[in-house]
Write a structure and sequence with these properties.
Helix content: 55-70%
Strand order of the largest sheet: 1-2
Oligomer: single chain
Radius of gyration: 29 Å
Number of strands: 6
CATH architecture: Orthogonal Bundle
Shape: globular
Number of domains: 1
Length: 490
């Protein structure tokens, strides 16, 4: 009897619900009809459309703010490079190093504005370079005093306007040329530095960007993975610096097997910490949006892990060799980890990022020894940090790439994906290195032939700071008034 009672109650509840619904519908029918007649529903639809447009504008504002702020961080890395290199060179070359780092940013901007951005992100020409957008032509229009932007550019699907993308990518371009100043420090003709920095920002670096980051680029179409520039920025800068250092020859009084000590490790440490801080803009900013906050968080964590394990690996490696804790090695180890993880920070899991940092921290010190053995004078270890670890980082995507994170959902070799992704990464690195080495030999070889690569020999006697700039960073301990120019040498 209890079951029958419950069943009847259920039928009664259903009947009551239907009756109430019918009554509500009947009551609202005249209201709905009136709304249709008076256009209220049309107004509601219009309001919904406006709300959708406002949401899009809000998202654009958030993404633009994110890209600009991270771009400022990347630009601030110029200060980090300047401090790092000034600390690692000898006392007589500090002003020259600071001057080169400073002016390179300025001249790269002009080059990037004139041709660099157009070649990199303009409409593609057979996947090799862009053909429109020079001097930011058609980047925006003015409509009654209101600036109206194109979103992205001819070869970019970035969810930000063209001018924002231009600035963010300019900061990357400046980094590529700044890497080169470190390995060529203390002996480069200042006019030669201005020339090669312009050429790098105007032609060489943008071509590689087009290959890998333009959606019409041939490497991009092959699904070459380089999220923030291990190959595009650091490998390019590293190999350019190696060719430049080789053609320049060593600094005066250079004894092989005895690397001149850094004159100010305090500067070098501050510079490294600034670079580490700026790298959060370098890597996380390359997402170009905050719509996927999980991805941005993964990038930040992977970046930090690789920097940390790189520093630890380098410090431990050098301790086991010499029973001393070398600060310089720890600094370069952290930078090596940062460079190496830059390609895969969005494509690998945290455990892989930590492993990448560990390997990079040891690799950078081994490559420093190799470069020294070849008798190429690289005062700051630029090739070891950026060239060797940049290549290694790009290759590691082909080893540790996670199928849920990679662009084509392909796993790396060690995660069961076979050699497909690894083959693309190896081929891309090979193409980039060959192009950069050939281009650099032509660029620096021409400068050397016309006498604009190596500074006058008199600079070796009195110091390049005095010769090129008439200044000393430490006038109390290195006064310039007591130095005399040799007219015959000059």
């Amino acid at each position: 009897m209890a079951k029958v009672s419950i069943k009847r109650k259920n039928y009664f509840a259903r009947f009551l619900a239907i009756a109430i619904g019918a009554a509500i519908f009947a009551a609202l029918t005249p209201t709905i009809a009136h709304a249709v007649e008076t256009g209220t529903l049309e107004s509601l639809s219009k309001t919904t459309s406006e709300l959708s447009q406002t949401t899009k504008e809000l998202r654009l504002s958030v993404d633009t703010s994110w890209v600009l702020i991270t771009g400022f961080l990347v630009f601030f890395m110029q200060c980090g490079f300047a401090m790092l290199e000034a600390g690692l060179v000898r006392q007589t070359g500090v002003v020259n190093t600071l001057a080169e780092n400073f002016i390179d940013a300025a001249i790269t901007l002009v080059a990037w504005w004139a041709t660099g951005f157009a070649i990199a992100f303009g409409t593609t020409s057979n996947g090799f370079w862009g053909v429109d957008g020079f001097f930011l032509n058609n980047a925006f229009t003015l409509n009654n005093g209101v600036i109206e932007y194109a979103i992205g550019s001819g070869g970019s699907t970035a969810p930000v306007n063209t001018l924002t993308l231009f600035f963010f990518q300019f900061a990357f371009s400046a980094t590529a040329s700044t890497i080169t100043t470190g390995s060529m420090a203390e002996r480069t003709e200042f006019k030669g530095d201005l020339i090669y920095a312009f050429i790098m920002g105007a032609v060489m670096y943008p071509i590689i960007v087009h290959w890998a980051w333009n959606n019409g680029g041939w490497l991009y179409k092959l699904n070459f993975h380089d999220f923030a520039g291990s190959a595009v920025v650091h490998t390019v800068g590293g190999w350019t610096s190696l060719v430049g250092a080789y053609l320049l020859g060593p600094r005066s009084d250079r004894v092989w097997g005895q690397i001149p000590p850094a004159h100010n490790l305090g500067y070098a440490t501050i510079g490294t910490m600034i670079l580490w801080f700026g790298w959060y803009g370098f890597n996380a900013g390359s997402a170009l949006t905050l719509s996927n906050t999980g991805l941005v968080g993964l990038v930040v964590v992977n970046t930090t892990l690789a920097a940390s394990t790189g520093a630890l690996a380098a410090m431990l490696y050098i301790y086991f060799r010499f029973k001393q804790w070398h600060l310089f090695c720890g600094l370069n180890g952290s930078l090596a980890g940062l460079v190496a993880v830059t390609a895969g920070c969005a494509y690998v899991m945290p455990w892989a990022a930590a492993l990448i940092g560990l390997v990079a921290g040891v690799l950078v010190l081994i490559v420093v020894d190799i470069i020294e053995w070849f008798e190429i004078d690289d005062p700051v270890g630029a090739f070891a940090v950026h060239g060797a670890c940049g290549m290694m980082g790009a290759i590691c995507v082909g080893l540790f790439g996670h199928p849920a994170l990679t662009m084509n959902k392909t796993a790396g070799l060690f995660l069961g994906g076979g050699f497909g992704l690894l083959g693309v990464q190896l081929g891309g690195i090979a193409a980039i290195v060959i192009f950069v080495v050939v281009f650099s030999f032509i660029m620096f070889g021409t400068l050397k032939a016309v006498g604009l690569l190596r500074v006058n020999a008199e600079a070796d006697r009195i110091g390049i700071d005095v010769y090129e700039h008439g200044a000393s960073a430490w006038p109390d301990v290195y006064p310039i008034d007591d130095l005399q120019f040799d007219d015959e040498e000059e």
